[in-house]
Amino acid sequence: MTQAQITYSSSKDNWQYVVDNDRDPFATNKKLSDAQKQTYYDAMVRAESAMLVAELQLQNARVAYETAQRAEVSGVAAAEATLRDATTRLDLVINPDAGHIAAAEARVAAAEATLNRLKGAGRVVQLDTAKADVAQAQSQLEMTTADPREVDLAVAAADVTSAQVAVAQAQYDLEQATITAPFAGTVAQLNLNVGDYVTPATPAVVLADMSTWAVETDDLTELDVVHVAVGDAVQVRFDALPDLELTGTVQGIEALGQNRQGDIVYTVRVDIPATDARLQWNMTATIEVSR
Which of 19, 21, 229, 280 is deepest in the core (most CB within 10 A)? Predict the structure, then answer.
């Protein structure tokens, strides 16, 4: 989306330069034919179309992200529950506790007691059933007290591994669906409310690092910019705070000037290491370069 916006902005600036100056923006002494002008216009139209397509794709991606985020939050909990169950079953296979052994022995004793009560004429069916119960209870007791089989261990271990993978995947998906701030700062502006429709060009949150300040000026003409260099000291004053004067340093000068009503102007960035609690974003400042 950002690349599409940059391409459109560049193409638009080129076309505007052609319209304003009737010259090639990359060779200012070259007068353009109608066909060459059309080429710059067509490039702007294509870039604008590509930007609109990118905006639509970004909107679709945001909807998919919100759906995935809701699904992944519940997915993590389900995967963790599966992992706990599989781990518990593995522990029971490897180390049966005294309670399980006692329960199996109790079932054997109950089946034997039933068998004793059923012995006698006319109780053949009941006797066979009781014998089967005794045999089943005895088999369960032997299985409980016997060493775990390799196949049971393998199945239980596979269940644990599968559950661990599911938890890791769900956690990863949740992390990928979470937006984090790129740096520690202060929320200066929150632009969203629940249910709002947001275009790709609208910032959701404006995050500010107010430990240092920067001032930008975009009205330095070509006649002035040649007298300014990166590293120059700058005195900065503020319209709202006439008693405050801070010292800054020129940190950057854009190499590409912009045409503004016939003047070529350049953007200059000034960093101010000192700060003041009264400073706010977008305050009007005046800078004076010391050379």
Answer: 21
